[in-house]
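Recap for those who missed Tuesday's class. We walked through two folding examples back to back. For each one, the amino acid string is listed first and its predicted structure tokens come directly after. Nothing is annotated here on purpose, so try labeling regions yourself before you check the end of the notes.
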Amino acid sequence: MRITGIEIPPPSCLASVRVTRAEGDFRQKLIEQFVSDVDDAESLERHRKLERTEEWLSTRDELEVWRVGCPCGDEKGKIFGVGVDQEFSAPVFYGCTKCAARGLIFDPSLHGYNAETAKKKKKVRAAPPAKAALHCRGCKTTVWRPAVVVTYQGEPPNIAPGRGLQDYFDAILIGGQCIGCSNFALRYSAECA
């Protein structure tokens, strides 16, 4: 679903952190981590070869990028999750390096398309403690300028009363810019539909 040009508010999963829409070079570098120019060109070529009648839509037109920070104003922080067999897993939290505040970023049982359309009432699940800090593959630091990328690749859903389109994302990617080496990476991802 094309969301380019639509002012979608941040998803409610980001309510416990300070959120701003990512812009400029920061935004472009994170989008490139998700879908490269080459990936986009190959997708268009496949669309043309299949002679599809519907308009081709770039994945870049179906996503939004949000910078995550602390309500105290700091833009740096750690990203915590659950370590399971050397893997980083949800729920995912932001931890401020300045004031030590912590806020939930994503829990698949509460957030995303599947959680929004589930027949059962959402409830917080018992999960192992989120103590594993997401590290940079390049320099191994765990401090980031965090960001969240959400995609809206399906058809617009029948939105429940009192809910907004922003909560019906079908994928989420979490990462940002490493403070240690300045590399950009999206190190955690989850399908939500």
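Example two. Treat it independently of the first, because the proteins are unrelated.
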Amino acid sequence: MNLKTNLDVLYLTENLNNYKSSEYQLDFLNNLKNNFNIYEYGPGYKNFDYKKNLSDLENDTQKKFDLIFLGHSFLSDRSEFKLLMNNILINIKKIPKVMFLNKEYVNLREKLRFIEENNVNLVFSHHHLALYLNKFYNKKFIFLPFATTFNNFEKKNDKKYDLCFIGILKNLNKKYNHTNIREEIRDALFFSFKNINLFKKKNFSSFNFFWTNHPRNKFEGILSKIFFKKWLTKKDYQNIISSSKTTFNTPSPYNIIGPRYYDSLACGTPIICPKKKIYKHYFDETDLVQFENKDDFFVKFKYLLNNKNYLEEISKNLKIKYKDVNYKKRVEKIHYHILNEL
């Protein structure tokens, strides 16, 4: 199908402005708007109505849509798989459908079944699994890694933190088989209770850490409030990553390489992370400082801090290499594939 360059797109999504953890999705959507004429629709928007179909929306907007984008939040990530906007897709055959797959570790079979049954034409996934899915599904899966959202952000030159970590210690859902290494490193650094770090252990009393553990359940949420642990704003998050000499990252469940890797590298903050073969799909080998186990983590961490010139050189090179690995570049790739493959 030959598509015109100036495309009118119906973008089906929940309203992302209602979510704390949707920063990369909002940046992604804003960059899509620079390449397509986007009309957003879905739960959380004022005009949303479960009963409306495509014809109703085209009448409302006085548009004939060239494409339908199924956004990151289109398919359910809840334990009970639900379709919130299925009426719109009933009997649509002529308009190409493009999906942005999210959280491949949740409801993956149901998501893949939906893609097959609804004749989705292109699927972009942030997971390297996309490189293999084309072998098993009669669809076009395209690997599109995450990127940094730190666009036009003035990076800090004052690296006051020796190490930072921001995130959950471990996904408590056993079926995701999340590693224990975050807990192991935290427990070596701090005396703690649940998600609260109480104070540093003697061997690390002279180090300056920024380490915050997001609550994983209601009890940990209550503890966070008692100890005045606030959810970081985007600016706080940027300043902390940028002000750190090193950062500790690990893959999310299902070996997802999340946005924080790219945010850290864009700030010139070297990442210390568990050794994984999957990194070859995302980075050059020298871009990451990989460790074998907990003991090796501390060997690598202390070596970086004790070799200031080496650390500064790594930091400078990473910042140059990754500062423009952003969603503008990712969306340019999407635009290219759509124009050339639909």
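Answers for example two:
The CA atoms of residues 174 and 333 lie 36 Å apart.
The mean pLDDT is 89.
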